Each structure stands twice: as C-alpha cells, then as structure tokens.
Amino acid sequence: MKIDAVTIFPEYFAPAQLSLLGKAQNKGIVDLAVHDLRSITSDNHNTVDDTPYGGGAGMVMLPEVWGKALDPLLISDVDLIILTPAGKRFNQAMAESFAKVNHLVFACGRYEGIDDRVRQYYSQPEFVKSGVRVHEVSIGDYVLGGGEVASLVMIEAITRLIPGVLGNPESLMDESHNSDGYLEYPNFTKPQEWRGISVPEILLSGNHGEIAKWRKLQAQERAKKAH
Ligand code: ADE
User: Fold this and answer.
1) Which residue minimizes the CA distance to atom 8 of ligand 1?
2) Ligand 1: which of 12, 138, 141, 155 to mutate, most ligand atoms within 8 Å of CB?
3) Helix 19-26 to helix 147-159 angle, to the nearest 10 degrees?
4) Mean pLDDT of all residues in the chain?
5) How far apart are the C-alpha atoms of 121 and 63, rounded to whole Å?
6) Which of 131, 85, 80, 127 is nearest to 106 (CA)?
7) Alpha-carbon distances, residue 105 vs 52, 85, 102, 183 (angstroms)
C-alpha cells in the first residue's frame, strides 16, 4: 500500500519507522512518504495560512498551497483522508475497508483547518471518475492540535490489517473490536499467582470449549461496562 502524508510537521511521523509499521516498510508492504507542506510554499515566509473570511478566531490553511501539494498525489485510484474533528468517526470497520485500498493520502490540517474548497475541488465529478475518493475523518470527539497524531492512529490501525504486516495473523481473528463488536477478554500469563492474585482456574483446565465460552462471557461483560 502506498501512503502519503502531507503536513507542516513531518517530524510527527518519526514513530512510523518503529515496530510493525517500520518492519512493514522494510518488507516493502507499506510505502510511506511524508511531505512537508512548507516546502511547497513560494513566498519568503513560507506562509500556509491566513485569517478566515467572515471573521472569527484562528487561521485557515490556504487552498493554493494544499492544491500544489495534492495535485501530484491525486491522479487515480486514491483515497484522500482529510483529518478534522468534524469528520466521520473512525472505527474498526473503516480501518478494515481502508486496509483494502491501494493508495491513501492523509491531509493533516492545523489551526482551524483547511479551506473547504480543497475538499470541494477534489470531490468534483472529473476526480470521482478518475477514482479519487475524498473522506473527512475524525478519530474521536475531542479537538487535537492538528491531524498528524490522528493520521498516525489511522495508519497504525489500517496497516496492521494488511496481510503480511502482523507476525501472527491469527491475532487478528481473536482480538477486540473485531466485527462482532466485543471488547477483548482479559489475558493472563506467568506466573500462576502474582501478588496474591491467581489466574482464573478455567484457563488452567485445558478445556478449550469451556475456555472459549468463558472468554466470550468476559468480553461481553467488558463491552457492557465500556459503553
Ligand atoms: N484534528 C483535530 N482534532 C481531530 C480529531 N479529533 N480527529 C481528526 N483530526 C483532528
């Protein structure tokens, strides 16, 4: 999968070199390119924002700069993700559908966001015809300083679903938030007793049918508490 991220803070993406995502890039399964939006500006001050029409607090990111950055990335068969707290809420089902695409482009807005004409422009019929799909996505009901951390969250959740990224693909089958919506059951490892607390007997029984039933029940209980 090809992934492009456009940002004024490329350094935010340093953790993408670590762990599974780093390995996926070394293996050539994921090709991540981070683009510095400021390098695209043409004025002496490398301006990326200006005051909003209609007044109000904060600054809005300039459509001209974003257009220059995105034009070469949005040619065909590509999903543009604009990070904004006003977007559609990211969840596991969305991660699963993005894990199947060939090319993702993350537009990381800061301040009060990106001039809305950028979204409008790339949503026009000629782009739709070329396979450009525009999504506004939020990772949760809170406001971050910008879209960089949100992009990292999405990239991690999406790429670990790509075949070959996880060492043991079976961990995908069992885990929390899989399509039936249950949070994962509690897990235990050695030793059998730690600080006076024992591992539940059932897990030592070797009865896989009963263990599976117990885990399902525990997962349902956790899901009830979490919602
Ligand atoms: N930018 C600022 N807050 C955000 C959020 N919650 N999700 C995505 N992008 C954001």
Assistant:
1) 138
2) 138
3) 70
4) 95
5) 10
6) 80
7) 25, 18, 10, 30
pLDDT at 177: 54
Q: Where are the beta strands (DSSP E) in the chain?
A: 2-7, 31-36, 49-50, 60-61, 78-89, 103-108, 132-138, 193-194, 197-198
- What are the beta bridge partners of residue 88? 137
The answer, yes or no, to whether the previous bond of 163 is cis (omega within 30 of 0) is: no
User: Is residue 7 in contact with ligand 1, taking CB distance under 6 Å?
Assistant: no
Least confident of 3-7, 43-47, 176-180, 213-217: 176-180
Tens of pLDDT along 184-222?
Answer: 999 999 999 999 999 999 999 999 999 999 999 999 999
Distance 69 CA to ligand 1 centre (A): 20
- Its sign, for the CA torsion 121, 126, 127, 133, is positive
The type of residue at 52 is: P
Confirm or reject: Cβ of 86 under 6 Å from ligand 1: no
Report which of 66, 81, 83, 80 is spatially closest to residue 147, judged by C-alpha positions. 83
CA 161 – CA 151 distance, rounded (Å): 16
Q: Which atom of ligand 1 is nearest to the CA of 143?
A: 3
CB 62 within 8 A of CB 49: yes
Phi/psi for 186 (5° steps) reads -70, 145
Burial of residue 223 (number of CB atoms within 10 Å: 0-12, 13-18, 19+): middle
